[in-house]
Every structure is written in C-alpha cells, then in structure tokens.
Amino acid sequence: MRVVAGVDFGTLSTRVTLLDDQRGRLGTASASYPLHRKRDDPDFATQSHADQMNAFVQAMHNVLEETGIRGEDVEAIALDTTGSSVVPVDANMQPLDDYYLWCDHRALREAEEITALAHKRNLEAIEWCGGVYSHEWGWAKLLHWLRHNPEKRERFASAFEHCDMVAATLAGVTYPAKAVRSVCALGHKWLWNPKWGGYPPEEFLVELDPLLRGVRARLGTEVLTSDHLAGHLSAEWAAKLGLRAGIPIPVGAFDAHWDAIGAGCRTGDVVNVVGTSTCIIAMTKETRLIPGVCGVVPGSVHPHYTGVEAGLSAVGDIFDAIARRANTDVGALAQGLESYHAGQTGLLRMSWDNGDRTVLVRSELGGITLGWHLLHTAQDELFAAIEGTAFHTRIILERMAEYGVPIERVINGGGIPQHNAVLNQVYANVLNKPVLVPRTTPTSIGSGIFAQVAAGIFPTVEAAQERMCPEHKIFLPQADAVAVYEQLYALYRSVYFSFGDRDASPQSLAMVLPQLREIAASVRAANSSSTTTAAV
Known about the structure:
Elements: E1 3-9, E2 13-20, E3 24-32, E4 36-38, E5 41-47, H1 49-67, E6 74-81, E7 86-89, E8 99-100, H2 108-120, H3 124-127, H4 138-148, E9 158-161, H5 162-170, E10 181-182, H6 183-189, H7 202-208, H8 215-218, E11 223-224, E12 229-232, H9 235-241, E13 248-250, E14 253-254, H10 255-262, E15 269-274, E16 278-284, E17 295-298, E18 306-312, H11 316-325, H12 330-334, E19 348-349, E20 369-370, H13 378-402, E21 409-413, H14 421-431, E22 435-438, H15 445-454, H16 461-468, E23 472-475, H17 479-500, H18 512-535
Parallel strand pairs: 1-6, 6-14, 10-11, 15-21, 21-22
Antiparallel strand pairs: 1-2, 2-3, 4-5, 5-8, 7-9, 12-13, 15-16, 16-18, 17-18, 19-20, 22-23
Helix pairs in contact: 2-4, 10-15, 11-13, 13-14, 13-17, 14-17, 15-16, 17-18
C-alpha cells in the first residue's frame, strides 16, 4: 500500500483525498472557509490565505482520522486551486492583503485597458487568450490592487496565483524569487508563454501603467509544468498537518484542469467541468491558435500535451437564477424534467446571463430567451436553459475541431452532472456524441494522480489514470431527439452569431420564432401520437 494526498482548494472549501495505489480512493474530508463579499460592491470577492490554510489542516487531520492512515505513511501531496486568485506579498512571502478571488470582478477597467493596448501594440499574447483579456485574470487583478492600495505599495515584492502560493507556503519558501510558478496558471491567465519570452515586455507593461514598472522582474521565477517539484514539505507544515517532512510537492495547477485528469481525460477527449459555470478542457499534441478560445498553453493540463481551455460564463448560476425567480430551488424545479422532449417548449434560450466567455469573448452580453407565450412556466425555461448551454457547448466544440482539436469523447465532470441525468442526456443528444459521466466525483483525484507521479508510484499520468479514475456512466444519443436538435441548433447558431458577433454580416432572424413554434408543435404531435398508440 502506497498512499498520497490530493488536495483541491475550491471557492468555499478545501477537499483532501487519500489515494492508495491498489485500492484507489481511501477517503475524502473537507473543511470550509469564508468568502468575503460586500453588499454595496457586488464585484468584491476575497478570501484569506490564513483561513484557507487553517481549513486545509483541519481537512487533512479529518481524513487521516476517518481512514485510519498514519500521516507518516503519506508519500506525497499535490494541490489544485481556483484561478485567477491572486495575492500580493511582501519580501518575506507574507500576504499584504486577501486573495482577489477568481470571481472578484473589480478589475473590469484594467482588463479593458490591457485588451485595448495589446491590440494597439499587436501583442501576440492577446490572440492566444481569445483576443480579450478578462477581469478575472492575473494582470488585471494585480493592477487594480496596485492602483487602490497606495499605502501598501512600498512593501509589495511580488504576487502569486493561489496554487503557487500554497505550494510555496507548504515548502517553507520565504523569499519570492525562490518560489516556483505554474505553467497552467501563468499560461492561461498571465499572458505568459516561452514563445514570446515569457510575460509581456516591460515597455508594454509600463505603457499600460507606470505602477507596473519592475513587476515583470518580480514575477520572473521559474515557471514549470506539474511533472516538476515546487518543493518538499517543510518541518513546520509537516507538524501542522501530521505528515512526514520532506515529502515531494509537485507544481500545482487550476482545479478544472486537474479535474479533467481525474475524470480520465486523454487526447481526443473534452471534459466539461459543469458547475456554476463550465470550464471546457481538452489536450492536443499540436499547439495551434484557436480564435475565441481563452487559452492554448503547452503543458498546462498534461505536461506533455498542449492544454486547451474554453467555457461558458454561467451554467448552474443560470439554473439557480431561474429557480430563484420562481421562489423555489433547482432540485424542486427540476422534478419532472425527465418527461420533457427535445424542443417541446418552443423556447430558445441563450446562455449569456453572465456574458460570453467563448467563442465571442464578450462579457457585456446578456441573456436572451425567444419564443415565449402566455402559458410557459419556469420549468419550461429551465429545460430550455439546459438545452441552451448544450447548444453553446456545441459551438465551442465545433470551433475547437475546426482548428485541429477533434473531439471523440465528451466527459461531463463537475458537480451538476453527478446529480442531473436530464442534463447529461440533453448534452448527448445536442452534441450527437456519447456523454460519459464519472460515477464518483473526480475532484481532488487529479491532484492525487500528480502526487503519485511525484512520489514515483506510477511512471506516467496515464498509468495512474488507469488505476485511479472512476468508472463512467454513459449516456448515448437518441435518434429522434438528435433530429430535432439539428433543427434547433441551426436556429441557435444563427441567433448566437447575429446578436453576439460584432463583425457578423446582418441577416434576417424573421423565421426564428415561427420555426420554434413549428418544431414545438411537431414534437408535441409526435409524442401525442406515440402515447395514443401505446395506450391502444
């Protein structure tokens, strides 16, 4: 028996899983930490590094106690986190503030300035993140912090992504230049790539804002893939966690990327990590620009392949909003959706309630629902929203395939697919591909796999996946529904680009509403006929 710990730092809690090379998952424990919000500033979202580390210690002790595993028998520890979640630090690696969490949206102005200047200066990096820099990403957050904390700027020594900060803390790193940084974090969120010499040039950053003078050099530590080590567990943190000092800590990554590994992702797969939003992860042998896709980074998901990241800005959040407006919750509203048929509602719902992350990359877009009549219900809208997120996912997968990332298997990871068979079946029918759903959650399995490789328990990520990844439940496309969704998808695609693409040629949408009604009427007639025949 050889045991490692895989750790996942989420938005509200940390989860620690112990994996055995023979038996797989031995147990999982979690502990929560507060998310700081402000009623008068809905864009504000921060978290304390100390709170997170205290919760991590609690979760580690809990899982050791629950499984009966001795801490000294744990051979490695690996961690993934949210991102961009950015913390500024002083010269001793002490936080100068809380993390700007991934969902902190205060840096919209800074992101717009970065995007505008990048295009003005023909900065190649901007094209590799979809052409638009996000307010959820590192440079924008750091610049916002520098502008709004003049009293702390003198003590500013560097800034770190969450995954790099936690790894450095555990390894006892007390000097920013000695900390290792993650290819995953910097490649997807900080305009970093060795192709253009790492970060954007100093002159670009200074032109953006003189406050960034010298910051590039302060971030210039080693940037490595996760088959390298961030360090070894320090004696101080070994004592706090109840583990053995000196065990390896591989370079960390973002949660969705390692969730994809934990879900069994290989080349030819795409993993939809479906939660409040959707992070769509794939791996490919070639590195090729994909317009509108927010990240194409060598080594970000798997050390030996190029990681591709895309996604929807809201999925579960849309479902929650629909239920909330109906004074209920999603679980209650979803009861009975299994009786719905493809296209029966006559509604076509765009998934832009929180903007478009891929492939239009327009955060200012808003939700659209077409086809309302006086008898529609909140449950009808919920089903149409599930269909709409599936259509949007198909737009993204088609863009990826167009630029050399063909998709053979679709794996629905994340929390929602574990509990929503209707969503998985709709996705299978809309995408016209089998949809695989892990039978148990892959969260923190991916980090455990990288811990096993770091400990030398398995020689490769693939070898560890063979033994550690959960089995899949498979949802197959249904021919009748596929035929209906082919018609609806043509309408969705037309509305998607006509309303959302600034450069789209004007086209008439006059037939969208009548065709929605025709499709809904034919679905109702077909199912009414089959019901009558069955009754006879």
